[in-house]
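This section describes the prediction task in plain terms. A model, or a person checking by hand, is given the sequence of a single protein chain and must write out its three-dimensional structure as a string of tokens. No templates, partner chains or ligands are provided. The sample shown here is typical of the held-out split.
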Amino acid sequence: TSRSPSGGPLLTPSQSLDGAGGRRSGYITIGYRGSYTIGREAQADAKFRRVARITVCGKTALAKEVFGETLNESRDPDRPPERYTARYYLKFNFLEQAFDRLSEAGFRMAACSSTGTCAFAPEQGGPADDKIWTSYTEYVFCRD
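The expected answer:
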């Protein structure tokens, strides 16, 4: 068999290692809802709200490997390691921190998608011309 520069076997993308210290191939999707307000005539000072919750979708074993103790499993506590779930979320609210952890674990971004809706907000005490935009964004990461 061929060997990598570190002396280990070269793996094709369809193969994975299991066990202690092994790297599994797979996908993890990070999602979040966001909102922001744009005032009259699309002023440059849009007001962004912080990310309330970052959700995690993927195989339980991969999510635990990448996020460890920062993974909140309370919504799906007894999920088997090789099963998928979309019910986990992170205990922190910074996308950059999630991206750093994924990068350090050998994941790369494969795709992203975002949707948005707009609603006027005068009933919420804002000026009649203010609009509140809400969005949902997902980032798909993979590791071969």
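For orientation: The first strand starts at residue 26 and ends at 38.
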